[in-house]
Design a protein that fits this description.
alpha/beta, 2 domains, 10 helices, DNA polymerase, domain 1, 215 residues, globular, 8 strands
Length: 215
């Protein structure tokens, strides 16, 4: 077990929350509005990552990208709080670490304003010093500037910080910023894929992290 960090940076989707029902519904609405077949949940899980534009591009290509994004965002803004839930152990881990005095923040490629609304809706904002997402800065994971910006925003040094996420983007972002990468298998990638991406530690879920930290 690594030494207990002082600062925890979390990815959102697949790490703290399960939002795939809403995400799938929004992509299905978008593709059907373009006259295309609705994607399967498996197709959506394979497409997401690297920011909304990149995910949409994988599904519709370049020619329909801007139109698709406009349709998606309008629908998303109306429905984003439907069918979003915390993953098992998320609230318990956040609360236990907050009680220990740890500094915690969300760092996601999900649009920032959506991410903050979701954290408010799920009642986890009080545990977080910041929620930083796409469109809040010029950067996305895995660019190291995004982690540097977030650490500066929350007043925490890189020493003693860790990134917790569910994808190779999170792992690469952490290592680009010289942070340890702890991975969970509750999102889009399994343990083998996370191991291949060089996660420092892999856990089945957040409850396992809480147990490993003795919380």
């Amino acid at each position: 077990m690594p030494k207990t960090p002082l600062t925890f940076l979390y990815d959102l989707d697949g790490t703290l929350i399960d939002h795939f029902t809403a995400i799938h519904r929004s992509y299905a609405h978008t593709l059907e509005a373009l006259g295309r077949p609705a994607p399967t949940m498996a197709q959506i899980r394979n497409a997401v990552g690297g920011g909304q534009a990149n995910s949409m591009r994988r599904l519709v290509g370049e020619a329909d990208l801007e139109r698709a994004l406009a349709i998606y965002r309008a629908y998303w803004d109306r429905t984003m709080l439907d069918d979003v839930v915390l993953l098992p152990g998320a609230r318990e881990l956040l609360a236990a670490l907050a009680a220990r005095g740890a500094t915690q923040a969300v760092l996601t490629n999900k649009v920032g304003y959506s991410s903050r609304l979701i954290c408010d809706h799920l009642g986890i904002t009080p545990f977080l010093k910041a929620v930083v997402g796409a469109q809040d800065t010029a950067w996305l994971k895995p660019q190291p500037e995004l982690i540097a910006h977030t650490l500066k925003l929350i007043g925490a040094p890189a020493a003693g910080a860790v990134m917790i996420g569910d994808s190779p983007y999170d792992i690469e972002a952490a290592h680009n910023a010289a942070l340890p990468a702890w991975a969970v298998t509750t999102g889009t990638h399994d343990a083998g894929q996370l191991r291949a991406a060089h996660a420092d530690v892999i856990y089945p879920d957040l409850n396992a992290i809480r147990a490993a930290l003795g919380l």
